[in-house]
Write a structure and sequence with these properties.
It is built from one helix and no strands. The chain is an all-alpha fold and 55 residues long. The protein is elongated. The termini are far apart.
Length: 55
């Protein structure tokens, strides 16, 4: 194995590890459902959390 091919192999492995750590495959996630998880009117999303900056 030459130096060029081993560096390409290392780059390909690093890229594969990076992609698997960032998202993986879509098959691992459960299917999305339209039913709300909190009580309320059907179809209304839960309120977004308010983010505040530290002073």
């Amino acid at each position: 194995m030459t130096l060029l091919s081993s560096s390409r192999l290392a780059a390909a492995l690093a890229l594969a590890c990076l992609l698997s750590a960032c998202g993986g495959s879509d098959h691992d996630e459960p299917p999305a459902t339209d039913t709300p998880t909190q009580p309320g009117e059907p179809g209304t999303p839960p309120p977004a959390p308010q983010l505040r900056c530290a002073a």
